[in-house]
Amino acid sequence: MSAAHFNSVHLAGRVIDPPSFSHASHGKTIFRFSLSTERLSGVCDEIPVICREEVLSPFCPTAGMRVALEGEIRSFNNRSGKGAKLCLAVFAHNVDETEERDSNAVMLAGAICKKPVYRETPLGREIADVMLAVNRRYRRSDYIPVILWGQCARYAETLPVGAYLAFDGRMQSRRYLKKTEEGNETRIAYEVSVSHLIEEITGTAENAAAAVKRDASS
What is the DSSP-derived secondary structure letter of residue 57? Predict the structure, then answer.
């Protein structure tokens, strides 16, 4: 993975549902569960978590248990024809029981792969929607929807496709109604909300290359 691309997540919260079988990948059994993390506003995000079976071997989280984990955001194409076409989940490298307060911290850096969409809410808040491609090993990438606010939104609007964007933020969930042939269906969308930009990497490819060079020489 390029030093200019990184993908790191720390979560602490309460288990909503116990782990259940998700799928098998490269001979490994993958389990899935949901984690609730509370924002300062009191709103709770419901974050989907996946992990290999061996990650849960020391203990198996139960509903209501408080856990903390480290991992990265993964994206998947949903080919079932139902629900969102792009699915996000946190791939956990470790999961441990904890007394830590709720935490939801994301650090991402990657390349903008679609022209940022700038808009204003009915209340006048400035927002920019960005699709970020973050490289991982074996020539694969994760495509992660990102939302920026205020001055960050205005800045993102000026960035071209291919520009690097690096930031701290949080992963959040949002419920919405989707009209289908069977009627209205409640779905959950996931995105990363930006807290602040990491300016020494964000911007042009030249800025990112310079940051990589500084990192290699330090």
Answer: S
